[in-house]
Amino acid sequence: MSFHQVPSLPPMYPRRIMIVEDNPTHSRQIQNAVEKWGVVGTLHLCPTGEDVFKLLETPKFGLDLALIDLGLPDISGIEVIKRLRRGIPELPIMVISSISTERSVLSAIRAGARGYILKDDSEYVIAHAISQVLMGHYPITPSLAHALFKLAGSPAAADLGDLNFKLSPRELETLQFIAQGLSYEEVGRKMGVALTTVQSNIRSLYRKLDAHSQGQAVSKARAAGLI
Questions:
Q1: What's the CA gap between 107 and 78, in Å, rounded?
Q2: How confident is the model at residue 2 (pLDDT cuts 50, 70, 90)?
Q3: Exposed, middle or buried, 179 (CB in 10 Å: 0-12/13-18/19+)?
Q4: Strand, coil or helix: what is 20?
Q5: Separation of alpha carbons 159 and 144, rounded Å
Q6: What b/e string do you get for 13-27 counting C-beta neighbours within 10 Å, with b at 16 or more?
Q7: Contact in structure between 147 and 164 (CB atoms under 8 Å)
Q8: How confident is the model at residue 151 (pLDDT cuts 50, 70, 90)?
Q9: What are the backbone angles phi and psi of residue 115, rounded to the nearest 5°?
Q10: Number of alpha carbons in the 13 Å side-chain half-sphere of residue 59
Q11: 82 or 161: which carries more pLDDT confidence?
């Protein structure tokens, strides 16, 4: 098998895949990755958590894989994972997100995710991860795996609680981009949201972190291990 060849799956898979992602650009990226894997079947595109819940209420609804972003516009992707895990206990669930903190990864795993890949990964990497999770493996972006092993050996690991803290996934995603030095306009383009939404997220971050400037917010977030 060549490096850029995605492992094939047994033909028994009906290939019913749910993509939970509100950003059209990222949704298309994931669809491209699914196509690289060679899927022929049904794709359920859900831009909100509420769309997922409506599908779950459909009689005889079934899935083979759910690919979920954590930063949804209505509810946390973590809650979507928990709801899917309750409704379809054996369903393979993989997170594809721009949120890359150790706490977010651990929170997703505890909720029931079996893989965690970053949106910045290539379509090949995402396609390969799709094949891996469906074959029973637990794919994770290498940089996140390294951080998780470090965290697992930390004395503070046992005191992480439910790991959700008070920041929403959207606020956490905004914070990560701001910490990278991006302007509000650039953050908006990355997240696929309006400038006013980014500004609203920033105001909420300042309030929750008790910060009075961007630098102070980033500094406090780093000290708390949020980024």
A1: 7
A2: very low
A3: middle
A4: strand
A5: 20
A6: eebbbbbbbbbeebb
A7: no
A8: low
A9: -165, 160
A10: 0
A11: 82
| CA–centroid distance for 181 within its chain | 22
| Two structure tokens written together for 43 | 């794709």
165 versus 86: the higher-pLDDT residue is: 86
pLDDT for 224 beyond 70 = no
Residue ranges and CATH numbers for the domains of the chain are: 16-152 (3.40.50.2300), 169-223 (1.10.10.10)
Name the residue type at position 32.
N
- What global pTM score does this model have? 0.68
For 124, phi then psi, to 5°, come to -65, -45
DSSP 103-158: HHHHHHHHHT-SEEEETTS-HHHHHHHHHHHHTT---B-HHHHHHHHHHHTSGGGG
- What is the DSSP-derived secondary structure letter of residue 216? H
Residue with tokens 């009906």: 14
Band (pLDDT 50/70/90 cuts) for residue 164 is very low
Place of tokens 């470090």: 150
96 vs 20: CA distance, rounded Å: 9
Instruction: Give the tens place of pLDDT for each residue, 47-60.
Output: 999 999 999 998 88
Q: How far apart are CA 44 and CA 19, in angstroms?
A: 6
- 7-10 contacts at long range (C-beta below 8 A, 24 or more positions apart): 7/128, 7/131, 7/132, 7/135, 8/38, 8/131, 9/37, 9/131, 9/134, 9/135
Q: For residue 121, what pLDDT is reported?
A: 86
